[in-house]
């Protein structure tokens, strides 16, 4: 059994401005520990057969300079790959985004031999997106992704991820994640009103009210 509130609280979140090739952007950062060897965590995030179990089907020319594709989601170029500690890729939903959205994952060994994962996603959001949704726009998605990795490393499996996302437990996790990103936004200088608006919009996007007619 996974304690979703505990897993939610296991993540440290932060956000801030970031200069990108195409202009000024933003970065969301997540850090958490996994009770697993660094080699196992690295294998879980880079081996297609394992990535498919906890995230999405992964295909492509999986080498530095090659391109990858996550089915129905992002693709891009592999910029750096230094097993078992560093992976950096461009994160492209649309071709014109290439170079203006990057994801970096760093792994290290903690004091008690746990693996510390640090993920940074830097991008220039589409016009109007940041004021409406703030860092939660991508932060909630990454929280869900890191939760999926928990299941993989504990040899658990969610057969239908879409159905799981509609469960009351998932809604609690998503809502908690959205609130946590609102707090990170305030810590980075956003007003309480702006952060709250972004939390409300992000929560409605990821976990719309299931009540008919609302």
Automatic annotation (TrEMBL):
- Give the Pfam families listed for this entry: AHSA1 (PF08327)
Q: Which residues form the Activator of Hsp90 ATPase homologue 1/2-like C-terminal domain?
A: 35-146
The UniProt entry, under InterPro entries, shows: ASHA1/2-like_C, START-like_dom_sf
Q: What is the similarity comment for this entry?
A: Belongs to the AHA1 family.
Protein known as = SRPBCC family protein
Q: Which organism is it from?
A: Polyangium fumosum
């Amino acid at each position: 059994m996974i304690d979703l509130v505990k897993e939610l609280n296991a993540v440290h979140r932060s956000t801030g401005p970031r200069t990108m090739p195409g202009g000024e952007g933003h970065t969301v950062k997540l850090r958490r520990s996994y009770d697993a060897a660094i080699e196992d965590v690295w294998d879980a995030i880079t081996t297609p057969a394992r990535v498919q179990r906890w995230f999405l089907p992964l295909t492509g020319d999986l080498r530095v300079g090659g391109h990858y594709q996550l089915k129905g989601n992002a693709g891009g170029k592999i910029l750096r790959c230094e097993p078992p500690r560093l992976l950096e890729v461009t994160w492209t939903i649309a071709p014109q985004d290439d170079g203006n959205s990057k994801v970096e994952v760093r792994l290290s060994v903690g004091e008690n031999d746990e693996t510390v994962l640090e993920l940074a996603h830097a991008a220039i959001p589409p016009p109007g997106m940041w004021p409406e949704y703030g860092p939660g726009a991508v932060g909630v998605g990454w929280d869900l992704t890191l939760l999926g990795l928990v299941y993989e490393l504990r040899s658990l499996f969610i057969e239908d991820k879409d159905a799981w996302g509609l469960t009351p437990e998932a809604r609690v996790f998503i809502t908690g994640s959205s609130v946590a990103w609102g707090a990170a936004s305030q810590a980075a200088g956003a007003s309480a009103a702006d952060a709250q608006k972004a939390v409300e919009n992000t929560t409605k996007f990821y976990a719309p009210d299931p009540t008919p007619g609302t």
